[in-house]
## 1
Amino acid sequence: MATLIKQDDLIQSIADALQFISYYHPVDYIQAVGKAYEREQSEAAKDALAQILTNSRMCAEGHRPICQDTGAVVVFLKVGMDVRFENKMSLDEMINQGVRQAYLHPDNKLRASMVSPPIGPRKNTSDNTPAIIYTELVTGDKLEIAIAAKGGGSENKSKFTVLNPSDSLVDWVVKTLPTMGAGWCPPGVLGIGLGGTAEKAMLLAKESLMAPIDIHKLQARGAQSYSEELRLEIFDKVNALGIGAQGLGGLTTVVDVKIKEYPTHAASLPVGMIPNCAATRHIEFELDGSGPAILTPPSLDDWPDVTWQASDSSTRVNLDKLTAEEVASWKPGQRLLLNGKLLTGRDAAHKRIQELLESGEGLPKNVDFTNRLIYYVGPVDPVGEEAVGPAGPTTATRMDKFTEMMLSQTGLIGMVGKAERGPVAIESIKRHKAAYLMAVGGAAYLVSQAIRSAKVVAFEEMGMEAIYEFGVVDMPVTVAVDSCGTSVHKTGPAEWQVKIADMTFPPSHNT
Ligand code: SF4
């Protein structure tokens, strides 16, 4: 007899699952990061891991999002051929209704990041719909659902190639990974799809990220297939690159490598590679017609006992009296605690500023960047007493092309974002004796605790892309590019790659 899945049960299950993964990391991921924290020897990477772990526990306790980028929703459905649906809505409409309900939840409103159309007006759909949905018909009488909320920073680093069948997959991965920079907020899981055709390889890569983290079990029992051998080899060789947490240089860049395969043409070896980030968010469940999914919250005892604290050696900075001379004195890797007024802006705000400056209109009247820093962020809306919701940094390289304009025409003297800067931005930073500071991607709720006030000062109609003025107290950042153009995202990994090469045992085995 066919199983009947009620429309409301499916919608509720999708909404509940998305709320659940917005604040609960998968336990396997958080424990893998805990192990990485224990063995980490790089001070900078260890500090970043401590922030990620502390943020994770705070989110689990406070039911607030792990990251300000609450992701694009990706859903894999396996529909049993003996399943029937109440058919007032299409399957996709039911999923999207669940997404809408989750992202507009009044107690934990999530950031709507989807824009439509993808080019041109790029208008925010305001409820994070539509989801990206893949549906497969399988035997059976259940509906299996795997659902993820995938951050833009890690998704943007996806790679694809078609290798010659005789080429080395491992060589391609090891060569390609450093080109991804740190905008994918390592450490995470690397998903690799092999075979099929071009689009199939990418889909396999994405689907591979839904599997549990088990590389250390595989290390213990040994490989039993060629693809398991590849997983082990790629895991060791990628971690030996020394990229480390947040690209600061260190022992752990990936906490697992997943491979999903499909037969392919004799002339081809399509390869898709997609990383998962510090905001790894996915859950799997099934519906059998008996009601909505019951999702069991993890125990807080599952979280590693790690609480991040600002280093005693951190320098307190008064942003309200900041001078170009003080910025020029900061050293690469120096930890700072920011206090005072901080302006924000990301892609759309920079583009608008560029248009205003080019038209001769100048900056909006409430916006003065003279001797100020800008924070690249698109925060989650606040709830309750919060000044702002989770508000971690966004990928700074997207603002590289605006950096010369900002430093030469607005009086700005520094920037705060995540991951590395590209050569054009570093050249501008050097030319203007400015600095670039990094905050930890994936520690958004922790960072938001330092933001005590927030008001929109320009471009309100842009929603999360508006320019805010934050009042911050002891906001933790690290000098990532100093006024001489030295970048810790270059020096850190280079130093740790050499150190790891000198170690007797690969660090990834040291669990
Ligand atoms: S952890 Fe980094 S890549 Fe992941 S969603 Fe957050 S900002 Fe984006």
## 2
Amino acid sequence: MVADIAEKPAKRYPAAGMYSVLYDGQCEICQACVSWLRTIDHENNTTCLPIGDQVLSSMDSRLTMDECLRQLHVVTPGGEIRVGWDAITCLARLFPSTRLISALGQRFPFRNAGKLLYGFIAKNRYSLSKCRGGACRAAKPDKVRQQAKLGAFWSCYTLGFFIRLPLVLWSAIKAAEQRMSIFVRTYHKRFDLLNGRLVILFLNGMLPNAVPVLFGELFTAIIYDGIAIDPGSPKMRRSLARHLQQGNLKITKVVATHAHEEHVGNLNWLSEVTGTPLYASEMTAQFLTPFKKLPWVRATIIGQPPNLKPPYLLLGETVDTESGYLQVIPTPGHCDDHIVLYDPKEKLLLAGDAFMGSYFATPNPDVDSRKWLASLELLMELDIEILVEGHGHIHTLRADIPDFPGVVIREDPKVAISEKVNYLRWLREQIEAGFQEDLPVRVIEASCFPWGRRTSWETCATDECIRLLSLGHFSRTELVRSFVRKDADQLPTVYEVRMSGGE
Ligand SMILES: [Zn+2]
């Protein structure tokens, strides 16, 4: 039980002069504590190592997998091994903000209370972490899985949440600040790039403004080499008209990437006022005639688009631009009718909503993540130097695109896409495993957002806010569902599901 397992010093340590903290990389509680430790350890006194056969054997022969999984182990720079509550007080001594915990924690009655509390958490943690794969492969998964109860899972997950809560709130404030700054800098702005061949028009509207302010999604119309793409919703029409009045915009065609309300509300209108032909894919045109009735939250904030009226043309495999052509590539996933436009000469991809950042956890109900993954794998085969998202963000390393913090993201587009591909593959694995083990959907959802992933707590407040304000329409739950959609499934909405009373 007590601190030192043995007296004799061990052979070698990977990090000289540092405290090595061995934690269970699969455990919510351990991960939460490690992220706190990293936050307060400004001077890099500690190094946190997830338990694994290799780590243990390279560090000290006295460390065993079973013991390390049971309790926290810390190896001091002097080669001593501290275990459990004593390991915690040993770490607490290192930092001014926690020194009091260390001083009290070594004395009666706090030491006894601390050990009791630590024992309780460690015991439940063990059953939790083992039920979710990973480190348990090294231990005895069957035995452990039997012990694992959902109650233990939820108590650990909830505890993990409360341990993170200050971090969640802090990052929510930071994110809100950043969103506000981007909103102000893009308000009614126009962004001319590549000698005017690429123009981003930022669209605003009284109620639509709530979206960029609360969630950071910007509304745009993109004009590339004469082609106006996705010109916004009816509630942004005045903003679009203002941009047109300012002149100096050459529009020769209007094209829709997919039938979502914030992209298609002004198709006929723009085509009429500019006297140019309108193009949509066959499926998009079908979705727009008539356009399904939106749930009231979306209709109120974004606006119900009018039905598509003829004349319009169906998109083929390419569409001609002023100086060349764009390839039209079907990319189902974000929704079934999605297409992207690709300029092979400029190596530029107009991605619409087929790419919405590498990490995106609150999809719409018509997302099919398996199809999305296949579409992204297809896009990985293209040579892309500039990636323009439908909501205004641009990923590029090219020097002829000037800096615009928060809008231009200095990152190789292929790296950004491959990160998303990896993330979706990981989710697929996690969700498939969950269903195979017959876990309830809520548990699978939670297991897709382990507190050990920075993005889980960083975007927690925003994601839950989106869930709340969209009445569950866009949510982390939809992310799980998006992996189990069958082709035969009608585009479901939360409302339909609620009315039929099913899961
Ligand atoms: Zn969309």
## 3
Amino acid sequence: MSNTEQGGPKTAPVIAPEPAKGKLGVMVVGLGAVATTMIAGVEAVRRGLAKPIGSLTQMGTVRLGKRTDNKSPLLKDFVPLADINDIVFTGWDIFEDNVYESAAHAKVLDKEILEQLKPYLETIKPLPAVFDQYYVKRLHGTHVKKGKNKRELADQVRADIQNFKKAVDRVVMIWCGSTEIFLEPTAVHQSIEAFEKGLESNDVGMAPSQIYAYAALSEGVPFANGAPNLTVDVPAMIDLSRKNAAPICGKDFKTGQTFMKTVLAPAFKARLLGVSGWYSTNILGNRDGEVLDDPESFKTKEESKLGSLEYIFQPELYPDLYKDIFHKVRINYYPPRGDNKEGWDNIDIFGWLGYPMQIKVDFLCRDSILAAPIALDLVLFLDLAKRTPSLKSIGIQEWLSFYLKSPQTREGLYPEHDLFIQSMKLKNTLRHIMGADLITHLGLEYYD
Ligand SMILES: NC(=O)c1ccc[n+]([C@@H]2O[C@H](COP(=O)([O-])OP(=O)(O)OC[C@H]3O[C@@H](n4cnc5c(N)ncnc54)[C@H](O)[C@@H]3O)[C@@H](O)[C@H]2O)c1
């Protein structure tokens, strides 16, 4: 095979993913705005009440072969994804509200649709959570597990997983819980052994999200992280993921402002337009906004939001264009807007001979409406990874970076933030695991 548009070097022979047989159990940590919007949305789609807009797994296509072949099947017809009719949800929360009550509280979806889904949503009641207010200052949990140390709490989550496994064929876990305080890796995160000792000694460096992740990975269950928490971004968790063939990916759903950043910044770089400043601010009035009003939780979010530009612009390669960018991100809690966030960006750019220009972006978005399809896609793709011989034991699934503000990579590799490179990587990974030719976009063969 020549190195053509439809076929980069043909990939090594692969063993196809196992089919998606039976029920897929999705365990959601935190049944708040995003989680309930995903769950209600999946049920609405199952009943034909709405379309799964924004979901690649449900609506996306993948081109196969040459442009002239006109072959672009739906992704879900090309790779063996679990059918959404086979998804069974459960989850944990620090409040006892069932999914209907929590969705009504979040006020993302209209009353009309929630009422139609009520009998189903009411059946999903949260299990007691692992929670400690030290890690999320603005919340006071009442529906929580008790244990003498973190190891006991992890064991209780493992028991929840084992119990759920009796009712379903496969399990995936996703964190849709709140943003925890900013934590950095310490000695306790450097190996599985050190981590397990830390669980026993109640090490303060281990937040609840890490206890859930540890339990999932120990049970061979893939884990996705919708928040910017440290969680699986440490050697102990990466080792556990590889050891137990439980795939992980990056963190923090890439929904609104960072999504726009990772579209615009690559465009400026491609055209070699300089950037001197990028000021981003948000007003947000949901519970997430309230949690992020705490400086310690905001710090975790800020780190995640700031990362993308540095990597996209590569100031070390383009010092004249990007060396001195002033990048600022603010989030302001403003209750009247609820889940309907407004994100403003002011971008100071410069062109030919250094002449300055400005771009203003005002994104009136709906946070959970953007996040729900991402959460769904992540669980379906992680389940696919778990059934794919060439992916299940590699740990980090870099091809899922597309969905995340903070992609995770092997140590020493810089993360890829450019949305279009991420999209290409995702689709080429799917072609690769199905033994199809990769697409390089060279295209010279049309002109032979
Ligand atoms: N909506 C978006 O666009 C978006 C984008 C990126 C990241 N996120 C992140 O996703 C997460 C969820 O967002 P949301 O808007 O649904 O927030 P939310 O506050 O509505 O929901 C979070 C839920 O998690 C629960 N919770 C907190 N700690 C818990 C624990 N230890 N165990 C079990 N449950 C716990 C809370 O009680 C709450 O019900 C947040 O961390 C947010 O930063 C959201």
